[in-house]
């Protein structure tokens, strides 16, 4: 059982007009085997939270803490966080020219587990995981994300999650750009991994559709850099009906 | 990678003092005196390291004395039966297509009595790549050479010139690809750090013939390899690929010229360079000329540089000149970028350490060219050299801004 604990997190970014505050005191605790959905208007800071968890250099932490089973995550480099068990499925996965998917996956697996995986087993694992996500094996020989369609990029993110077996995963709009079948396949993947490893999930989304497949234990409404309200599944349905007006007017 | 167009603003102003000329109209002469001593303002010298190239501007006897500047390891050529008796100044095919375009090249022409003549016999298919090993015997030794590589009609083969050791070495390479022949020519500059090397390659590709030309430069103090290719024949095809890795204090230059002369020719130019360390320089000037009779031309040229640390500088100047209205396609691009933070972040977020992430990105960047070489020994040597460079660069701070 692991705990990812975010306390009073304050984050800003440097812009041409100077420093801009984006996260204004975020509190969130995620336990293993829990699914937390975060919903909120565009620009409210959801991706900022995701990137800050992963340690993207663009974001400056001005205050608060992030701990993983008591360990200070903010002290860790990006790669250390991943090795500690954090995974970010990105909203916009990056293309890496000249680096094939299979080389990338093997290098990442070796880094995370501290030793090279046994070749036979590994090839089987990769093939099996691709099959489950309905990815053609030819993706292995393609360069990372290069020329992938939007939906293919998202599947490739989940493929990595499946193979790297993190303790906590942040899925930043993984459902956007997926067709109906892919949405189901990807959701099944998340549920399967959770079932096998007790993965804790922070699921950022604009749509309740994915929540039909991935049952959230908690739903958080994210507005203007902080959590404005928390609830269960029913909160998501209400948001879909009413939108975010209530929170925005309240000036939270 | 973060792409920013390189705009050599300081050059734009200098342009006013240089008469505008078509690349093909550049003056040529076999007499060094006709060129005079370059001042560094000339169009083909202004980004060069003239100071260190100076020993090659000396018009002196270089074939006397017991010890030659370059040892020619030609055993493989001999074994394959590709060596033809050396040719004097007037012996064909020497000079069939070659015209010196600068003083160094004219000196090399004049001071080399016997050209090395490599010939793929008519219709012969040479399955294995053949490597000529040119080894410099001393950084203070001046050598001049003229080399002819001739692919006879219908022949197929791969010739590699591998340069190592150290010398002050001026070289002309005359490449004749006769009709229907398919030649791959790779020149590898694997010199020691104190070598000074200037080489002018001039190639002509005949009817239905194909030339893949590659310049791979990673060793040497100053390395200037200027290749030009004339796609003269109907449906001639040419590819010009280059790869360079400039370290601290290295100046690696290529002035590349692709001339579409015949009808329905196809040309592709792609040069990639990585740079790291204080004073690392690379210069790429790429001219493409589509002549007035070159209807149906298909042409593309691109230069990409990856600046790994501060203090390194890449100049990249693409030019495209089109003299016919009827072409199939033409384009050019130039981009100089630094390490892309987003790429590094993506790899690191999967647990990969920063140094390893850099390695993946650089090798990924250069791999596109490495894979085109098709000569296992050279590909391995190159992979090894790239790893060596990266180890050396590991302690250096990453580039802080694009373009450098
Ligand atoms: N480089 C930048 N310069 C200026 N503002 C920025 C920069 N990067 C991010 N921001 C701002 O930070 C805010 C939060 O952005 P973030 O991407 O976290 O929002 P989000 O909630 O993920 O939105 P979406 O739902 O559209 O994905 C936005 O207002 C965005 O414009
Ligand atoms: Mg977002």
UniProtKB/TrEMBL annotation, chain A:
What's one Pfam family the UniProt record gives for this protein?
Answer: ABC_tran
What region holds the ABC transporter domain? 4-249
Known PROSITE patterns for this protein? ABC_TRANSPORTER_2 (PS50893)
Q: Which InterPro entries match?
A: AAA+_ATPase, ABC_transporter-like_ATP-bd, FeS-cluster_ATPase_SufC, P-loop_NTPase
Q: Name one GO molecular function term.
A: ATP binding
Keywords from UniProt, A to Z, are: ATP-binding, Nucleotide-binding
Q: Carries keyword Nucleotide-binding?
A: yes
Residues spanning the signal sequence: none
Family note: Belongs to the ABC transporter superfamily. Ycf16 family.
Q: Which PANTHER family does this entry report, sorted A to Z? A: ABC TRANSPORTER I FAMILY MEMBER 6, CHLOROPLASTIC (PTHR43204:SF1)
The entry's protein name is Iron ABC transporter ATP-binding protein
Species in which this protein is naturally found = Agrococcus pavilionensis RW1
TrEMBL record, chain B:
Q: Which residues form the SUF system FeS cluster assembly SufBD core domain?
A: 141-365
Any Gene Ontology biological process: iron-sulfur cluster assembly
Family statement? Belongs to the iron-sulfur cluster assembly SufBD family.
Q: Report the protein name in the record.
A: SUF system FeS cluster assembly SufBD core domain-containing protein
Specify the species.
Answer: Agrococcus pavilionensis RW1
| Taxonomic placement | Bacteria, Bacillati, Actinomycetota, Actinomycetes, Micrococcales
